[in-house]
Write a structure and sequence with these properties.
CATH class: Alpha Beta
Strand order of the largest sheet: 3-2-1-4
Number of strands: 4
Largest sheet: 4 strands, mixed
Radius of gyration: 13 Å
Structural class: alpha+beta
Order of helices and strands: EEEHE
Length: 81
């Protein structure tokens, strides 16, 4: 069972022990980890902290995803035009 309230995207980088993550459903939420498992753990607690900050600042909290996904992909590098 996925113990997250929102979908999580984990991106692998050129460094074998450095991953970035974010949730497309939770604006402003990002983080890093040293493994996929580390990212999931950090995201679980980070999402709770992020929601608490949104509440404290009176900002909109997106509805929880009843079927969140964890997607692991290569880092998406934005091209500069």
């Amino acid at each position: 069972m996925i113990e997250l309230e929102y979908t999580l995207i984990i991106e692998a980088t050129d460094e074998p022990d450095y991953f970035g993550f974010y949730s497309p459903e939770l604006e402003g939420f990002t983080g890093i980890g040293h493994s996929i498992e580390d990212c999931v753990y950090n995201a679980k607690w980070g999402m709770k902290e992020h929601i608490n900050l949104l509440k404290q600042h009176g900002l909109t909290i997106p509805p929880k995803n009843i079927n969140p996904q964890i997607i692991v992909q290569n880092e998406q590098v934005l091209a500069v035009v």
